[in-house]
Amino acid sequence: MGLIEAGAWGLGRVAAAARPGRPWLRVKASPWWARVLVAAGARRASTSDSMAVTYPANAPSALTSAAETPGESDPPGSSAAMFELHDVCIFYGDAQVLRRVTMSISRKQITALIGLSGSGKSSLLRSLNRMNDDVPGFRIEGRIAYERQDLYAAEVDPQEVRRRIGMVFQRPNPFPKSIYDNVAFGPRVNGMTGGMDDIVEKALIKAALWDEVKDRLKASALLLSDGQQQRLCIARAIAIEPEVLLMDEPCSALDPIATAKIEDLMQELARDYTIVIVTHNMQQAARVSDYTGFLTVEVDHEGQRYGRLVELDRTTRIFTKPNDKRTEDYITGRFG
Ligand SMILES: Nc1ncnc2c1ncn2[C@@H]1O[C@H](COP(=O)(O)OP(=O)(O)OP(=O)(O)O)[C@@H](O)[C@H]1O
Question: GO terms for molecular function, please (predicted)?
Answer without folding.
Answer: ATP binding; ATP hydrolysis activity; phosphate transmembrane transporter activity
